Amino acid sequence: MKVTIDGQSVEVEPGTTILQAARMIGGDLVPPAMCYYSKLKGSGGKCRCCLVEVSKGSEADPRPMPKLVASCVTGCMDGMEVNSKKSERVTEARKAVTEFLLINHPLDCPVCDQAGECHLQDLSFEHGKAQTRFIEEKRTFEPENIGDKIQLHMNRCILCQRCVQVADQLTDGRVHGVLNRGDHAQISTCVSAAIDNEFSGNMIDVCPVGALTDKTFRFKSRVWFNKPYNAHRDCDKCCGKTTVWMFGNEIQRVTGRKDEYGEVEEFICNTCRFDKKEVTDWVIEGPRKFEKDSVINQNNYTRKLDKVEINTESHILFGREEDRKKISMTGVPLKKEDK
Q1: Alpha-carbon gap, residue 194 to 196, rounded angstroms
Q2: Which of 3, 47, 65, 262 is 20 to 30 A (C-alpha) from 282?
Q3: Rounded to whole angstroms, how far apart are CA atoms 254 and 104?
Q4: Spatial distance between the Cα atoms of 339 and 335, rounded to a whole number of angstroms
Q5: β-strand 241-247 against 186-189: which pairing, if any?
Q6: Could you give the 3-state DSSP secondary structure of residue 231?
Q7: E strands present in the chain
Q8: DSSP label at 17?
Q9: b/e per residue 310-339 (b: at least 16 CB within 10 A)
């Protein structure tokens, strides 16, 4: 099937969603996604960040869809034409969704460990507003230890439910989930520190905001001060392929390897994530390269940087020729009275 998104066409297989087709094309036209996760079945359709405009349904039925649709759960049709980045309706909708997500979200970026790799930061930077119309009091929760090494900050949660799906699909028995309904909904457990599954740490990796944090890394360092390296080890519980974040010769945290959309390539166990923090525990493969621009990628040591040349008048950078001669000992001959 052929699908056109913002004027760029791509051939896709039946069953492909619009978001997946956009990722095949790549670039700025890819809709943002806060709840969709390609490695988790049934994810998507909750945050409404990936809304797009379908201007042509298909070759068989070219009528446009009257409303914006969530690209992560809408399948492609042959001949479908979609407007994403270039649609004013889509831009306004994403601004509204961003404003809605930030209603209760606190300004924790200066103290949040997710700062620098937070998807909500990226969304707010592109579609957020400097002011807010929300005058009511934000809902607040106390931080909760839902596991031995996992802390939940429900104030930051946007209820994307990725962590719940990780527990459903990777663990033997889920002990946490969404409690209550409507504006009272929250992620929690019935008993504190009840999560002790070997793959529970993956909830930290899939969280798009700073709601779930690694207690072994909290407040240690900003991510842009660490250098990420691909590393692996022989592990009988998982693939053993990880990214180790180093500050000097110290491994400060271990995460799964993520792609340009922030999704892990393979889930890892808690032993690799929390217990193996010595350099001797790992085989370091080399520096990790990032394909997506982010604060982590700025001045990255793996990037090929072009030489910057400033084309301007010579006297602006070097000064006037007569002034340069005056301050040059070899360029100005000694006067008779100075001999």
Answers
A1: 6
A2: 262
A3: 30
A4: 7
A5: unpaired
A6: strand
A7: 2-5, 8-11, 51-56, 69-70, 80-83, 144-145, 150-152, 176-179, 186-189, 212-214, 227-232, 241-247, 250-256, 283-287
A8: B
A9: eeeeeeeeeeeeeeeeeeeeeeeeeeeeee
CA-wise closest residue to 94 among 131, 68, 55: 68
For 287, the 3-state DSSP assignment is strand
Q: d(Cα 157, Cα 114) in Å, to the nearest integer?
A: 12
How far is C-alpha 87 from the chain's CA centre?
A: 23
What the block records as the tokens of 178 is 């969404």
- Give the strand pairing for 80-83 and 2-5: parallel
Q: What is the mean pLDDT of residues 238-265?
A: 91
For residue 28, name the pLDDT band (cuts at 50, 70, 90).
Answer: confident
Q: Which two tokens stand for residue 67?
A: 């409303």
pTM assigned to the model: 0.80
Tell me how far apart the alpha carbons of residues 171 and 108 are, in angstroms, rounded to a whole number.
Answer: 30
Q: How many CB atoms lie within 10 A of CB 267?
A: 18
The rounded Cα 326 to chain-centroid distance in angstroms is 56
- Tens digit of pLDDT for each residue in 98-114? 999 999 899 889 999 99
Q: Residue 204 pLDDT more than 90?
A: yes
Kindly report, residue by residue over 138-182, the tens digit of the pLDDT. 889 998 888 888 999 999 999 999 998 988 888 777 778 888 888
In which band, very low, low, confident or very high, does the pLDDT at 330 lie, cut at 50, 70 and 90? low
SS3 string, 61-118, reads CCCCCCCCEECCCCECCCCEEEECCCCHHHHHHHHHHHHHHCCCCCCCCCCCCCCCCC
> Are β-strands 69-70 and 80-83 bridged in parallel, bridged antiparallel, or unpaired?
unpaired
Question: Residue 68: which region, alpha, beta or left (left: phi > 0; alpha: psi -120 to 50)?
Answer: beta
User: 94 vs 306, which has greater pLDDT?
Assistant: 94
Residue 326 has pLDDT above 60, yes or no: no
